[in-house]
Amino acid sequence: MTITSPPVTDAARRLTQRHADHPLRGIALIVASTVFLACSDTLAKYLGRTLPPIEIGWIRFLVFLLIMLPVALASSESPLRSVRPKLQVLRALALVASSVLFITGLRFLPIAEASATSFVAPLFVTALSIVLLGEAIGIRRWVATLVGLIGVLIVIRPGSSTFNPAVILPILSALCWAITLILTRMISGADRAVVTMTFSALVGFLALSAMVPFVWVTPSWTDIAIGLGVGLASTIGQWIVVLAFRYADASALAPFSYSQLLWVTILGYAVFSEIPDAWTFVGAVVIICSGVYIAHRERLRRKQNVAPAEPNPNP
Fold it and tell me: Where in this chain does the entry annotate a coiled-coil region (predicted)?
């Protein structure tokens, strides 16, 4: 899975301001996180040869839940006491859908192509912010979003002989991830982070547990080991992302988060002998440039909101 800047609460913003004087440390952490996330995706694709996507997702969320349990139990308050429990459940289900859709896409697509296509998530966030958050989106961010969509078309090339209909799966995964981020913004001011993480792990595990009996394939010990690696690498990668944003601003880290494409390309070639074509890289560059610009405009918008005496520019 690709990574996207987490929503910033007032408390998180104050914490970031205290620690944002170590940008190199933040950049190093974000690059390290992409290595773990790329390894998780590669292991998931490899495991997809023998296990169905829902079962792989179930193992991933099982590991997530096992890691979260000690944290939740150590919390001074109930980790399930939420001000907005319905939104927490919806967020967790969107996260599950994003994970399963992406893993399914990996079964049919080269890992670099699936990853490049999933970078469209920030573009969906921009569009959904209007509907769900009532945000005003300026012409510059709309143009950047359209440019990003052009990049997606370059990668998937509909109508050509190389078009694979399965490419819709990472796009839908990115849409579900964007919904997850939007719901996180709506929740972040009401619930503690440990509550959100606990709901994600528990609801995700329960939802997949209800589905996995219908597709169950008894895994070998090797499959179990690889599945644990998927969950562990994914959880470590996401945790490092949280650490990275303590040391640098999102706009500074955004360009380096896309280094995940480099790692999945290397791993895709080493493990699956996959070599992306030139158009995949061209489209990925267009998508990445669009995402970086949107992150830059978001940073300017947040600065403008902090300074009430100045007029609002186009976001």
Answer: none
195 part of a folded domain: yes
**Does residue 153 fall inside a structural domain?**
no
How far is it between the farthest Cα atoms of the chain? 63
Taking 80 as the threshold, does the pLDDT of residue 240 lie above it?
yes
Give the confidence band of 162 by pLDDT, cuts at 50, 70, 90. low
Number of domains the chain is built from: 1
- Distance between CA atoms of 205 and 198, rounded to whole angstroms? 11
End-to-end CA distance of the chain: 27
Indicate yes or no: pTM above 0.90. no
Q: What tens digit of pLDDT does each residue of 45-62 get?
A: 999 999 999 999 999 999
Q: Cα-flanking dihedrals φ and ψ of residue 187, to 5°?
A: -90, -30
Looking at per-residue pLDDT, the higher value among 77 and 269 belongs to 269
The answer on pLDDT for 287 being more than 90 is no
**Segments forming the whole domain that contains residue 64:** 10-136+162-275
